[in-house]
Amino acid sequence: MKKKILIIVSNANTIGPNNRRTGTFLPEVAHPYAEFTKADYQIDFASLTGDTPYLDALNLAGDPDNLAFLTGTGWADMQKATRLSDVDVSVYDALFIPGGLAPMVDMPENALLKKVIAATYEHNAVIGAVCHGPVSLLNVQLSDGSYLVNGKNITSFTNEEEDNYARADIPFLLESALTSQGAIFHAAAPWSDNSIADGRIVTGQNPASAKGVGEKIVALLESEMK
Predict the structure, then answer these.
(1) pLDDT for 49-65, tens place per residue?
(2) H-type helices in 39-184, by residue range?
(3) Which one of 52, 105, 148, 177 is most buried, counting C-beta atoms within 10 A?
(4) Total domains in the fold of the chain
(5) Alpha helices in 84-132 (DSSP H)
(6) What's the CATH code of the domain at 205?
């Protein structure tokens, strides 16, 4: 039976006091999507509200995986993302949350998202996120009351990267917030490929890390099949 992946995306399209335009960062969804497609997984999309999500970084459409996502079934399916509250998340083998600045707007405190991630993790499925996507892991509490990220090896877009990108636009620094909830944070050189798997949690630092996150999620799911 095919493994099933649910990609959960933000519905935000602006952020910060200057209403900076944003959305899901194209390579952060397209590169993992390419890995899931190669593995012949069923890939579905959900968003927090069910409204049409937004894409950022369309200037990177020349990349082969990005172009394939835009012109194939990926973007078409993402535009029809199901509202998360209407999805039976228990049937999925993995959840994946791509980044872009958008998740920093609507994912830090979304109660349903936190409940879904906690339940999915405790049902032994895989949780993956990249760049600003790991904000979805923030404030997730397990049934014993502990934070999901506490004691876990985690990465995300770093404070150093944010200084030169969007510090004036974001509500808080993601690296600092994850660390404050007990994450063992791993920062590599700015904009370098850095993805980490700790048990069933896979995180990536930035756009360059998205492919690696996809590969690690596939490796975990394939290992479960043996």
Answers:
(1) 999 999 999 999 999 99
(2) 64-71, 73-79, 103-106, 111-122, 159-163, 174-180
(3) 148
(4) 1
(5) 103-106, 111-122
(6) 3.40.50.880
Q: Of 28, 31, 35, 131, which one is the catalytic site residue?
A: 131
Query: pLDDT tens digits, residue range 99-112?
Result: 999 999 999 999 99
Helix (H, G, I), strand (E, B), or coil: what is residue 59? helix
- Examine the residue annotation and report whether 162 is marked as an active-site residue of this protein: yes
- The predicted pLDDT at position 225 comes to 64
- Residue-number span of the structural domain to which 169 is assigned: 4-224
List the structure tokens of 223.
């290992």
Rounded to two decimals, what is the model's pTM? Answer: 0.98
Among residues 28, 31, 132, 175, the one annotated as catalytic is 132
Q: State the catalytic residue, choosing from 28, 35, 161, 162.
A: 162
Residues contacting 154, CB < 8 A, separation 6+: 134, 137, 178, 183, 184, 185, 186, 196, 198, 201, 203
Q: What angle do CA 196, 219, 66 make, to 5 degrees?
A: 75
